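Quick one, tokens below. Sequence please?
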């Protein structure tokens, strides 16, 4: 099972993803065969732009289990692309990946960065929610994973003014259980979980204080079965001596935990979607069109993503 295919969706046509992908496969040989889903012309364009040479092996999706694949070449599923039809191209790329996964040929997926505003058209909060809906999975979570410390935002990609309305005991309980189950299944141990409060210093002048009314009671109810503590003020939990106490920190909203984790570890973390019937990872960076062709992008996150799935 461990050497099952790693399916890689290249993502946006104008992105640094293929540059960092080229660097990642030059950096190391991976045991799991890599299958890239991308338009061949786009791939050739980026290969030329980055002075990268490797033979392309075209794969027919309906015969994918018949190939003896190796990583001496780029194994490519060619997706039709037309200028101005980027969203259709991305949708078709995801559909092909989902077909491979549903057929049982792979349980490992990486997708390159996607312009969420354009692709999702406000129908979903993020790509995590888009994929979850396609697999009819309700309880999923974003884990920004790093060996030293990981974080999980309770709410994702929500405008700040909507965050407090969406913090519930049910949602927090689901994320705690999801993290605990993921760590047990993937790493064989129960993680030490810290939880931030919502308000500065976990204090509020309002009568309805989420930290006291929602977060603290839920944490107290979980302590007998799960190693969890909090709520902690978000401005101190990431201090060196404090963060060493935890494997995972749950925050109440996106930037409350993603900003410090990126400041601490820069390009090292990877974004894992917990709760899906397969392992889905995305490198922790965006398309960054301004960097395309400059050969200055850091490949660390895609290398870590490939390393993680290679051992999964």
């Amino acid at each position: 099972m461990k050497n099952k295919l790693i399916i890689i969706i290249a993502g946006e046509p104008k992105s640094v993803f293929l540059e960092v992908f080229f660097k990642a496969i030059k950096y190391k040989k991976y045991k799991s065969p890599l299958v890239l889903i991308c338009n061949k012309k786009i791939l050739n364009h980026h290969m030329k732009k980055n002075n990268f040479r490797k033979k392309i092996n075209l794969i027919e999706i309906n015969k994918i289990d018949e190939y003896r694949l190796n990583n001496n070449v780029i194994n490519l599923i060619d997706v039709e692309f037309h200028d101005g039809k980027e969203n259709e191209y991305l949708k078709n790329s995801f559909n092909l990946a989902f077909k491979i996964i549903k057929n049982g040929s792979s349980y490992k997926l990486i997708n390159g960065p996607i312009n969420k505003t354009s692709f999702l058209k406000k129908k979903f909060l993020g790509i995590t929610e888009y994929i979850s809906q396609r697999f009819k999975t309700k309880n999923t979570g974003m884990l920004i994973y790093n060996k030293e410390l990981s974080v999980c935002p309770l709410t994702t990609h929500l405008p700040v003014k909507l965050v407090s309305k969406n913090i519930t005991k049910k949602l927090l309980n689901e994320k705690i259980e999801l993290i605990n189950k993921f760590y047990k299944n993937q790493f064989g141990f129960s993680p030490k979980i810290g939880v931030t409060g919502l308000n500065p210093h976990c204090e509020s002048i309002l009568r309805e204080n989420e930290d006291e009314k929602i977060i603290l009671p839920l944490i107290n109810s979980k302590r007998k079965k799960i190693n969890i503590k909090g709520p902690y003020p978000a401005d101190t939990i990431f201090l060196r001596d404090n963060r060493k106490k935890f494997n995972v920190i749950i925050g109440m909203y996106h930037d409350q935990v993603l900003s410090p984790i990126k400041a601490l570890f820069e390009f090292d973390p990877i974004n894992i979607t917990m709760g899906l019937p397969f392992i889905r990872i995305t490198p922790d960076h965006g398309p960054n069109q301004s960097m395309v062709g400059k050969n200055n992008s850091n490949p660390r996150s895609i290398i870590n993503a490939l390393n993680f799935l290679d051992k999964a």
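The mean pLDDT is 93. DSSP finds eleven helices and twelve strands in the chain.
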